[in-house]
Write a structure and sequence with these properties.
- The chain is 56% helix and 6% strand.
- Strands 1-2 form a two-stranded antiparallel ribbon.
- Helix 1 runs antiparallel to helix 2 and helix 3 runs antiparallel to helix 4.
- It is mostly helical and 126 residues long.
Length: 126
């Protein structure tokens, strides 16, 4: 399995430290959300998406696009609850650790983006 530069396994556990950080951040936000006394309309959405993030962290190989989607839904659901803002920020930072390892998107001659490694000249038909 490829690792991004600067990422090492946690000694003795074989676990990617990004996964450990994601698991801890999601766990904290889930606990704080469960203990928050106020009810709000999107609480169920936040709980469901945090469960998705927790499952991806438990599997050990989260999908970046899915994590970003879940983060967006959680932020939309609990972003206005200031008591949860610090824990939400920790989840965001944990998700961003995975995004740093993603390959950059390259501009294409015939469209705004090309898949990584694509030959722009070939895409433009030249």
């Amino acid at each position: 399995m490829l690792r991004s530069v600067g990422q090492t396994r946690v000694a003795g556990s074989g676990e990617d430290p990004r996964v450990a950080r994601l698991r801890a951040a999601v766990s904290r936000l889930r606990r704080e959300l469960a203990g928050h006394p106020a009810e709000f309309g999107d609480r169920g959405i936040a709980e469901d998406e945090l469960a998705v993030l927790a499952a991806m962290a438990a599997a050990g190989d989260p999908e970046i696009r899915r994590m970003r989607r879940s983060l967006l839904l959680v932020a939309g659901a609990v972003g206005s609850v200031s008591a949860l803002s610090h824990a939400l920020l920790q989840v965001r930072h944990a998700v961003e650790l995975f995004a740093e390892a993603a390959p950059p998107v390259q501009p294409a001659a015939d469209g705004p983006f090309a898949p990584p490694g694509a030959d722009p000249g070939r895409l433009a038909g030249t």
